Amino acid sequence: MQSERHGVVIGAGTMGTNLARLMLRRGMRVTVLDVNAAGLARCHKALQEEAAFSQQARFVTAWAEVGGCDVVVESVTENLELKQQVLAEAERHIDVTTLLLTNTSGLEIDALAEGLAHPERFMGAHFFNPADLIPAVEVIPGPSTAEDSVERACDWLRELGKRPAVLRQGVPGFVANRIQHALMRECLALLEQGVVDAEALDDIVRYSIGIRLAINGPLRQRDLNGLDTHLNIARYLYADLENRTTPGPLLEQLVADGRLGRKCGQGFHEWPEGDAHAYERRERALLERLLAMMDDAEE
Ligand SMILES: NC(=O)c1ccc[n+]([C@@H]2O[C@H](COP(=O)([O-])OP(=O)(O)OC[C@H]3O[C@@H](n4cnc5c(N)ncnc54)[C@H](O)[C@@H]3O)[C@@H](O)[C@H]2O)c1
């Protein structure tokens, strides 16, 4: 599948690399721009195996080397001022019709749009890691985003095989991160109280609500169970659920101790180097199989 379209990814990190991979796999020409030459080289190496690689991908450190493009996805470090600067710089080099998207995990779109000359073609497009595999993309228009731009962004995302979902208004963390953090706040509280250990908690969630959430989503799942039953449980349970407004001691301690997860070899679980790579390969393979099954079921 070859397309004439040219996409620019700003930021060659975890997300930028998989965004570029996604575009290459869908036959798009891609330029990855990063100010950090070492990061750019890592991204280049990671994408070398893509079949379309040689003609379709470029890795640059400055806009002067980019040329005309249809879509720009900003995916640099999650920092408001940095993103504002990077977006303003991008605007100086692109046409007024080029879509300008930010992959922020939850910064306010209005704040990011401050200082843009053409905010009507700017919006959030929040991808999920690994961005080449996970289908959902939250699309977050700002107050100045034109409807036509939102439609064009959704069309482009569908061309990439994604399932864009447009939010009616921006809220911190958008939808998925709000739900993920609500879930994790409760998980952390259960660990702190010693109700379960990490192994048991993961097992309970994966093999109970986890598998059904992937098939149904939370709301359809509750419809299947009955909202009257849900209400009865909610009446006695809400008062007991975790509702702290700042991160608790367990998370603070893990981070202070350098137990950051897979990248440091330890988090809630142990991650010996070789095992972590094998786990990632297995996770990718499982995701691909699961998504293929879900696609088949929808046809
Ligand atoms: N990692 C995730 O799971 C995830 C998921 C969804 C969205 N996001 C969002 O995607 C964005 C990128 O996250 P990541 O995990 O890839 O981060 P990362 O730290 O892996 O990569 C960030 C990259 O931005 C580059 N960068 C910094 N300043 C730059 C500049 N001025 N110009 C060009 N490049 C610059 C850095 O060199 C680095 O390569 C963030 O906004 C993050 O919140 C991350």
TrEMBL record:
Keyword Oxidoreductase: yes
Domain of life: Bacteria
Residue ranges annotated for the 3-hydroxyacyl-CoA dehydrogenase NAD binding domain, each copy included: 9-168
Keyword Oxidoreductase part of the UniProt annotation: yes
Keywords annotated in UniProt: Oxidoreductase
Domain (3-hydroxyacyl-CoA dehydrogenase C-terminal) ranges: 173-271
Coiled-coil regions listed: none
PANTHER family: 3-HYDROXYACYL-COA DEHYDROGENASE FAMILY PROTEIN (PTHR48075), 3-HYDROXYBUTYRYL-COA DEHYDROGENASE (PTHR48075:SF5)
Protein's recorded name: 3-hydroxybutyryl-CoA dehydrogenase
